[in-house]
Amino acid sequence: MSRTLKLVLMAAVVEMLLLAIAVAVWRWQTVSDAPSGRWYVGTFAAFFMPLWLATGAWLEARKMARPGLTAAPDTRRYNEITLMAAAALAVGVQAWMAGSIVGFIPKDSIQIRAIEALTGVFFMVVGNFAAKTSPPTGPRAPDAAVWTRGMLRIGWAGVAAGLVILMAAITVDIDQMAWAIFGVTGLFATVVLLQQRAMRRKPA
Hints:
Low-confidence stretches: none
Number of helices: 6
Largest sheet: none
Number of strands: 0
Mean pLDDT: 81
């Protein structure tokens, strides 16, 4: 991971955390009684994007830094472009979310559905290109066939996750959309972690 990308990701995470804290403080000051479940959901949603980006960046950096592995140039380029795009998406979605929570941006159902649809397209594009990356080299590199099968599964999972989110943007009730994104994202992350573990070369 390049120094520039690390700085961009760090700046994005810090900015989003500060914004999430500001939104939480603002929401707390507007509560006249004990916080409701809706208050907790809205506050958690503001923190979800920086946590999502930070976790993804940390896992990617950890994977790329594993000894005995040298990532192929196209795979490294794919990872860096994906992280940069994820940072831009996370910052934009959280900024819109914060503006909607505090009342600066009207809560328009069309805007909400458009943002969820964009998130679904992002997952589909990421999954599609993940399946086309080249295997790493080095003494601890997995077998090329094992890598290819694993990345194809990750790619299909990403496309499927994006399709589910895209369909939810059209059909699911507005109040349930956040749960659709959180749930699908969690399932996709689980598939990625399991496949990456399965692709590791077993010690002799």
